[in-house]
Amino acid sequence: MNETSDVIIIGAGPAGLAAALYTGRARLATLVLEKGMPGGQILLTDFVENYPGFPEGVVPFQLMDNFRKHAEKFGAKIEMGEAKEIRKKNNLWVIIGNRGEYPSRAVIIASGSVYRKLGLEEEAKLTGRGVSYCATCDAAFFKDKEVAVVGGGDHAITEALFLTKFCRSIKIIHRGRQFRAEKIIQERMFANEKIEVFWNSVIEEILGKEKLESITVKNVKNNEISTLKLDGLFVSIGMDPNTGFVKGFLDLDEWGQIKVGPSMAASKPGIFAAGDVTNACPEQMATAVGTGVAAALAVSEYLE
Question: Looking at the whole model, is its pTM more than 0.90?
Fold first, then answer.
């Protein structure tokens, strides 16, 4: 059993590191557990142009490395480790990890979420080189370019509409014959001349050497194959929150996100959550930071 912390933060993305900065400044013994590299999903983006205070944009790794240094400056400790379970023991919360057990007086879960992938061969290689999972993050890089969006829900159609502000043309690839998105969003989409819909279609291949060059699309009704030359491909088929280790332990919504109240408190006293893993955070870095700060302030008040 490791030394008892005042607060353990699960996840070292924007929400987790922002929370660690604030709990560290509050002189709370803070341990951050991160299963991978500190930084979170934002590291999948080539460049960040919409984070306040950086008018020229910033490289995600540099920004998140500064987050890490800032949290560590105020005493937060960051360790490699993956949370597998949370248990109550002797009035403490104990994080059962793959590298040991970590007792704490309070917990902030900031484990984030992962973009659903298409699972195609060149997808990972071309991520950040034409393949993206966030239009609001990367649209500006495709000014006057031809792009496609994969998906048929609210988020996919909203992403396509956002891209019309930047791109020359947008093709929506959807495996069905009707969208799941709200009617009013669909109306705006159908009224936009820049958007073309490929119904009953799936992407078979993503092609490109150093950057995305084209995709192969198959019509599932007639098996017709077509090749589309593209500068960008936005995959918008949903996100999966990293909440497997608290399923059945905390209250989750229908999407598997942790339900939180105004103070970012979860359904068990002393456990809080922040960032994309919650049902209270749009998938943006700035809002993840805000919820991380809110959770840290709530922890300080709870421990008093």
Answer: no
